[in-house]
Structures are given as structure tokens and as C-alpha cells.
Amino acid sequence: MTFEAKIRRFVITASQSAGFRFKSESSPDGLPARAGRFATAHGEVQTPAFMPVGTQGTVKAVSPAQLREIGPEVILGNTYHLGLRPGDALVARLGGLHRFMAWDGPILTDSGGFQVFSLSSLRRIHEEGVTFASHIDGSRQFLSPERSMEIQRNLGSDIVMALDECPPGQLDRTKLEASMARTTRWLARCRATELLSHQGLFAINQGGTHLDLRRDHLDQILELDAKAPFQGFAVGGLSVGEPKEAMNATLAEFVRELPPDRPRYLMGVGTPEDLLFGMEQGVDLFDCVLPTREARHGRLLTSRGKLNIKNARHREEDRPADPDCGCYACRTFSRAYLHHLFRAGELLGSTLNSIHNLSYTVGLTRAGRQALLEGRFPDFARRTRELWNTEEP
Amino acid sequence: MTFEAKIRRFVITASQSAGFRFKSESSPDGLPARAGRFATAHGEVQTPAFMPVGTQGTVKAVSPAQLREIGPEVILGNTYHLGLRPGDALVARLGGLHRFMAWDGPILTDSGGFQVFSLSSLRRIHEEGVTFASHIDGSRQFLSPERSMEIQRNLGSDIVMALDECPPGQLDRTKLEASMARTTRWLARCRATELLSHQGLFAINQGGTHLDLRRDHLDQILELDAKAPFQGFAVGGLSVGEPKEAMNATLAEFVRELPPDRPRYLMGVGTPEDLLFGMEQGVDLFDCVLPTREARHGRLLTSRGKLNIKNARHREEDRPADPDCGCYACRTFSRAYLHHLFRAGELLGSTLNSIHNLSYTVGLTRAGRQALLEGRFPDFARRTRELWNTEEP
What we know:
The structure is a homodimer. Chain A contains 16 helices and 17 strands. By secondary structure, the first copy, chain A, is α/β, with parallel strands linked by helices. A nine-stranded parallel β-sheet of chain A has the order 4-15-14-13-12-11-7-6-5. A three-stranded antiparallel β-sheet of chain A has the order 1-2-3. The longest helix of chain A has 27 residues, at about 345-375. The radius of gyration of chain A is 21 Å and the shape is globular. The N and C termini of chain A lie far apart (about 55 Å). The interface between A and B is large, with 40 and 40 residues.
């Protein structure tokens, strides 16, 4: 066995024995915010961490080498998209998602549920699962807890998300309770489905902005957890159209009630403001398409707030997009050049803007983690907000 | 003065004193093929060399860092495009094209003539210059020898191309002769226009596939050259729709008649077959959009011939695009992955395909140069052609 193989085996064994155990490293007095870490077969994840989204087996417009330099701790792959195209069985035959997309760091795959409920048409939900028409070719497809686990097993991700029913933002209480009960039954079926030895399963809590429903659902999840522990807990069903104040009020009360010894993942969130607020509430993991999607539209996230590179005022601007940023785009190119690339419709514009937005977002959680470790998180949060609001980008 | 600045000053001085002098390093017995080198302020160019095209201040879909790894000796920028957008005066205010696009190697800029004659509408040619409507916004524009020199001076390229009239492929002899005479008068005006001290001017020979007209035009150019030498000679007006056999017959006779002590540049050529044939005739420099354009359409150039990554037979193919290629795309990803990226419409597909096609094309001229230096060029050319034709890609 080569030295490298030995190391890999050691890491897998270590992570299995650790069971994704979350090690809390710091927590400011009286605040739920925390830094921590947990091991996976493809490396350790240091939290808080933002996960770039690699929907179709690539973080859009960015190569794995560029992504490595940006430095996320873990990235996300989409079960719905990859299951349909190129197909999870094909990815498995080619050695799994890590090898297919040439990313050897940790990968989290979602369950496919969110996309089935948001992208597909002709959707019919049964207790067994969901039938739907593919958004690519209209073909009839089926997703169930067992099928979601099978896809994620074929992809070989490190973190597997349980399949949940994703109710619309403003569903009434009675319907929401029925949906949550089904999510719990699906969670039990996910737990009963075999995964690869290196994979950890995260449960998803629903309940909209109803704090009592969130707590009820968490109780149901913890009953299952007592029999066979989950490796993490996710807060789902937020940032789906409800008022921002309602989401924040829910998070402020609820995140701290999640088991402290496992990572906490706030799904599909979000803006820099959302990340800062989430970190303050004790969230460990975030994901969102916002940084890459905004980048492709020329909208840059900076330490001084948002910046639209299309604006004529950047046409002659020799400064980098964000003078406080050390990413490849900011240390190499002027705003004038990024403005030109956007106006000329050059692909490199999408790439450079994506590199910057991801660097900013990943950097925000990394800086938050550092501030937590050094006991200056409240000060960090205050200064970050001040900078967003007091200077022109 | 910093050490780096000293080095830069030394290089500029060296190149000025050398006056772009072409140093022939090898020439197989009885063949016009040759390896050589010449100095510019931004580094030495080793020939034969293929120049990737950076139309709008970026080689499409590829970052300067990725381009550096691909390793071209010199790249091309477009005077027509950059003069219209973002504007050459703006590029000058921002420190020139090298700094604007973050490419510190040699840059050749074309004269803008070819694009005026192929892209713009409402074109009117006078002795003074050409008026035309911008393809971007229809605005009225003017290009003359002096204006072309001004744009290229503002861009600060290392190699400046003289403005020529670009006649259509099958123009009759009388009209072609009149056009060539105007090109000669324009060449004299280009020569009379001041350039930056580090810039070298290349003259362009026209004459279609008429060998006698080519020779007449070369005589006119050499008359000007005797008064104030050009730094290189280009063969223009080929690969513009005439039959391939006619182009090759012209090159086979004419290239060897160009002055041997200056670089010879075959403009807008071409396919791997064209590059190999051109190298055999003694061409030193090539440029073409083909590698990057084909890449964006999923067509890959390989040592075993062309390959269409869209084809279903690549869907499950674990091999790299070209097993003989060491580029980032080939050493990192399978054909199945490239096929998936193309089908899914992911930008990374264009980037990886472009990296490969440019690596292949730049590598072909680099390998040709090496074979020339080692005295095995005829064998190299024969084996390269055999491989293209005998195996399935």
C-alpha cells in the first residue's frame, strides 16, 4: 500500500470512528455563534463554512483549480440534476462525483427534493415518493427516499441529505403539519437505506416560520436520532419567499436548540447579511447559488457592499473590484477590465466575477471563524456591517 | 531602481538594439522550414509559433493564468475591436493592453483592416482611409493608416501590423493590382507614423494566389524596406475562401522568397494541417481563431485527428480527450465529463475545450520547432500526418 493510500485509509477510519463528530472550538460568552470542525473521508471541514454550489458537476464558470485557490472547505452537488444528467449510475461507473468533477475535497449532495418541488412539472406526491416530469426532456421520473439515497450513494458524496417534502413558503398550519409528518416518515426510510461507509446522513427540519412546529418536528427527528444518530442537522424551508424578518426571528430562537454536538446547516442561504446573521445564531454550514448567479449578471459582493460592474462609472476605474480582497480577479484586474468583459459578453467576465464573489463569500465565513477563535466575533460582525453601509463601493 | 525594473530596462534596450532581428537557428538541408527567435520588450519569441487570438482583450474563455500554463510565445489583440470597445485611448490611460488584460508576454496587434472589410457595414474606401459603421452600435467610424498606428500605439503592442486593404478572395487581376498599389501607399504612411520605441512594424504582402502579383507587391514593399526596414513580413489575403490547393501552391513558392532575416507571419491560418504545411514552407508565425471557436462548439483538435465531444460515443468514455496531451483538461478530466459539460451548457466546457485546443495548437508549433532544432523535421511531419489519419480519435 502506498503512503498516500495509507493516509487515505487512516482518514476514512478516523472519520468513521469519529462519526462526523462536531468538535466545538469556540463560542463567545452568552452568544450561540461558534467555530468548530468535523472530519470527512475527503478532509476536515472547518466551520462556519460557505459551500459553493456545483449544480451540474461544476461550480459554474470556475475550474476545480480555481476553486481550490478560492479555498472552500466543502462544496455542494445536486442530486436532482446529476441524477437526470449525466445519470448517477454513469457517475458511479466513472468512479464517483469526486473523480468525475476532479474535486478531491468534501462534497455535500442535497436530496433532490427542493428541485423536484421547484423545477419539475406534472408533479404528483405519494407516500411512496414523487413522480415528476424531467425539466430537461419531460421524461417521467420518480424520486423516493430510497432512490435519493441510491443517487447520493452512486455520487459518493461525503454528506448525504435526507429527502424531505419541501412545502411552499406560506402553507397553512394543518397542511404544513401533514407535510412535516411525511418528511419524518421519509427520514426514517432514508436512515434505513444503506449508504457507503464514508457517508454521513443529515436530517432536515421543517416547520416554516412557526417556532412551535419547528420544535415539534425536531422532537420527531430526535426520536429517530436516539435509535441511529444523524451526522448533522439542517434547517430547511427558509429563504423560500417568507419575509426576511420572519426567517430571522425563527433562526434567532431555533438554531440554538439544535443538538450542539453535530454540524448545523442552514439550507439555501444566502446573502452576505444572511451569512453574518446565521453565524451569529450558531449556524455552521451555508450554501447558496447567489454568489455565482449574481456574478454572471455582473453584480459583485464586496466588503463595501454591492457593486454593479455594468455601471458606466466603472468604465475607467483602475481600482480592483474590492481593494480589500486578495482573490485572483482583484489582485490582477481593474474594474475597467471587468466592466469591459461584461459589456463585450466575454466568458472570462463570468469566471472572474464568480471567482471574486465566491472568494468574498467563502472569505466572510472564514473571517467569521477566525474572529470566533480569537474571541472578537461581536466586534467583527459590527465592523463588517458598518463597512457595508458607510462607504460607496 | 528595483532589480525587476533593471531587468525590464535591459530587455527593452536589448530588443531595441536588436531591432527585432530574426535569428535563424536551424533549417533542414534543402527545405525552407526553419526554427528561429527574435526579441521583444516583453520577452523573446521562439518560432515557429502559434499566436492565440485575444479579440476583445481576452483569449476567449481562458484566463491569463491558464494561458500562461498553455505557454504561447506571443498572443494577438484586435485593433478594430479594442479601438471601438473599450477604446484605445482608455486602454492607454489604463497603462496599455498588456496591463489591461494582465498579459506580460509579447502581443501582436492586427491593423483593424481585416475586420473593417469583413465585419462592418456601410463601408466606403478612399485614398485617405475607410469610413464604416461600427458593428456594435452603427456609429460612423474612420480607419486610416495613421489612425491604425495611433490605436496600436495606444494599445502598446510589441508587434504592430501595417494597415492593408483586404480584397475579397476572388477579385480580378486589375482590381487586385489597384488594391495592392493602395496597400503599398498605405504601408509608406504607416512607416512614416511614429510608434513607441519598443514597437516593431510588420509589412503585409497581398496578391491573392497570383504568384507574379505577390512578387510584384513584395518588390514594392522591399523598396520601402530599403529606406527604413520593417521588423517582419506577413502574408495576407490567404485563407479567405480560395481553394486550399491554390493557397498551398502559392505558399510553397512564395514564402521562401521573403527576406530570411525577418520573421514571416502567415495571417489567419489555421487548421493543424495548415500549420504543418506552413512550417514546412518556412513560416514563423501563425494566428487563427479556429482553436478557440471550435472549442466552444465542442470540436477538439487531437494528435489522432478531430473529435466531436458532443457525440454519444463519448458519453461513458473515461479516457482524456487526447491521451497524448498533457494540458490541464487532458490530465484532469475524462471525455465523459467534457461531454457532460457540453450537453449541460456549462461555461467550464468552453474553458476546458479552449485550454485543450490551444495547448494542442501551440504544442504543434513547439514540437515542430523542437524537431527542426534536432534535425528530424521531415520525420516529425510524416509521423504527425500518419497519426491524424490512421487512428480513430
